Amino acid sequence: MTEGKPVSKVLVLDDSREHADAIKRFCDEHNLIGLKVRRNRLLQVLRSNIDLGAILLAEQYGGSAAESAIVATQIDALRPELPIIVRRDADPSADGLPDALSRAACATYVATDLTPLRRVIDEYIFSIDYPNALVRGISEITEARLDSLFPGMTIVRETPCIVRDQIIYGEVFSLIALESAWCRGYMLLQTREQPLLDLIAGMRTHDAQPDFRELNSVLGELTNLVWGAFKNRYLGDAAALARHPVQVPLLVNHKQKTISFGGEYPQLCFKYWVTDDASGKSCCIDQRFVFSLSWSPEDFRESVQDVGPMVDAGELEFF
């Protein structure tokens, strides 16, 4: 996998041992993390909040094209935003597939020619180019603010990934707008309620248990701290911001646990695990960026402070 580039998780629904090595090699070479699941657990996985970028489905998954069509219909009903890419046995086109499978598939390919698969992965998952400096900087900013809010606790970050699904993680989230001359979108922070309450309780010197208001306060403070640092480092002077009157509605479906930003946009996702070493309890903070309104990475700039004056003043010295 390419160092520093976000990865994406794909669900591999393919029983073929003959082609397993080729698919695994493709995943390794294209920053994909392939996941497999037993057929009888598939629906449970699809209903979970696991982050996915695509589905790699074999034409004969489950023993026949008809069974594969049933699976594709189930996926399309539960996670319609996920692209389904079908590996065919011989014909690289969709000709001859059951109608349900043909309708659900965004592309087809054969194992002897992975060019169509590579093209679809680039189009649906890695269609947005995130500068390495941005990805690295977001991690640095967020980890530093988590460390300040949860002193003495261990912070571990997973590899950043690209997701296409719209699943909400946990029961509580905060949302804040991002706007500059080179991007317009949102930052989302979300988590499960009880694990975060446990961490807050672990920082207390008295026995009173925290409530949801304190949880909201902590998550709100984290959001403001990260947003402020992100703004100073990447969004530039407020006077130079590009102002656009166009907006799109954000839609939250609580029953289905989904959030839509006005379209099926890839999201840049970071997961941070905060662990209280004293109690062993952990909490996952899920952070997402979606630049659904404007994205011009060619205009991306990082504000870096000139260290010259600090060196001259004796506050810093070169190593």
What are the key terms here?
single chain; 319 residues; alpha/beta; 5-stranded parallel β-sheet; 9 helices; globular; disordered C terminus
Query: Rg from C-alpha positions?
Result: 22 Å
Strand content: 25-35%
**pLDDT averaged residue by residue:** 87
Q: Counting H and I runs of at least 4 residues, what is the number of helices?
A: 9
Which H/E pattern describes the elements?
A: EHEHEHEHEHHEEEEHHEEEEH
Sheet with most strands? 6 strands, antiparallel
Give a count of the beta strands, DSSP E runs of length 2 or more: 13
Q: Roughly how many Å apart are the termini?
A: 32 Å
Task: List low-confidence stretches.
Answer: 306-311, 315-319
Fraction of residues in H or I helices: 25-40%
The assigned structural class equals alpha/beta
Write down the overall geometry: globular
Helix-strand layout with pairing:
Layout: E1 8-13, H1 20-29, E2 32-35, H2 42-47, E3 54-58, H3 65-78, E4 84-88, H4 99-104, E5 105-110, H5 115-124, H6 132-149, E6 154-157, E7 161-163, E8 172-179, E9 183-191, H7 193-202, H8 212-235, E10 251-253, E11 258-260, E12 267-276, E13 281-295, H9 308-312
Parallel strand pairs: 1-2, 1-3, 3-4, 4-5
Antiparallel strand pairs: 6-12, 7-12, 8-9, 9-13, 10-11, 12-13
Helix pairs in contact: 6-8, 7-8
